[in-house]
Amino acid sequence: MVLDSFSKGRNAWRTRVSVILCSAIIVGLLAGCGDSPSKEDASAKQSSSNASTTEVAPAGQQSAAPSERTITDELGNEVKLPAEVKSVFAPNMEDSLVALGVSPVAQWSNGKLGHFYLQDQLKDVPKIDHSGGLPGPEVLMAHNPDLIVLHAESYAKNGAYENYAKIAPTYVFKNAAGDIEKSLITLGDLLGKSNEAEQAVQAYKQKVSEAKDKLSSVVGDKKVAIIRFAPRGVSLMGGEYFCGYALHQDLGLGMSKLVENKTAANISLEILPELDADFIFVINAYDQGTERMTEMMASDIWKSMPAVKNGHVYEVNNQHWLGSGLIAYEKIIDDTVRLLTSK
């Protein structure tokens, strides 16, 4: 009886211990399940974290893809620009294109002669002769431009704009040469090169400022004239275009009364005594004005001029002095400073 009671008590004790142990194991398992997420849960949480990071990332860190846009040119034409301009034709604006780091599909030329001072950069660009006017649409189609830029209103006349606009979007300036800095900024916007345009303009302004400082003590309020000798005649260049703009508007050098508020004025031996200039720059246009230049310079009237007597006549490089763009203007300014401050 004692043994039987002892056996029954031992069995009851074992039962109670087993229950306690099982309860502990179950609690532990439940706790472990609560602390360790499944692989699916972890993956879902990671994806949610990544999505949140993408949503809060600053927009400026991602560059938006370019898109087509419609603008209005200086003649009021609506121009639908492609998302990215890859091939441009802009005759007589090659200087500005090179300044922006852009190579056109074709370049302007007079016969076989292009812009001399740009040929290192444009040596592989085909030339299109403009001596007889703008090339026909069939000529331009062979070069497959996706943007055409005409530098002057005159280029868009007589149906030229309508014909060109059928080939590619065509933007027309009223007169790009009248304000090179402004037209360069516009061209930069058209081509997606606004930063390059701003940098080029700022560099040019710095050069102009430095040149003015160097010239102020030499030139002062004295006047400068630019005489262009060409096969068709001799002209005094005003301050509205090309080298005249660079000297008279940008550098602020005084000009003769003969060309005040004028693009240019014809010069002959009869008018020559009226030329009021202390310094004279001479341009032999495309090396084709030699005969007229020789004839005028051999005359007594020429030799009697104060600028000639004082040795203040300088023949300059027609290649960039007849150029239109900041690259040409910088070369013109370098020449002007060098020649006028050398004595």
TrEMBL record:
Residues passing through the membrane, by range: none
Stretches assigned to coiled coil: 187-214
InterPro entries: ABC_transptr_periplasmic_BD, Bact_iron-sidero_bind
Keyword Phosphoprotein: no
Location(s) in or outside the cell: Cell envelope
PROSITE patterns, per database record: FE_B12_PBP
Keywords noted in UniProt: Coiled coil, Signal, Transport
Annotated region described as Disordered, given as residue ranges: 37-68
Gene3D superfamilies: Nitrogenase molybdenum iron protein domain
Biased composition (Polar residues): 44-65
Stretches assigned to the Fe/B12 periplasmic-binding domain: 85-343
Translocase among keywords: no
Protein family: Belongs to the bacterial solute-binding protein 8 family.
Protein name, as recorded: ABC transporter substrate-binding protein
Species per Swiss-Prot/TrEMBL record: Paenibacillus arenosi
Taxonomic lineage: Bacteria, Bacillati, Bacillota, Bacilli, Bacillales
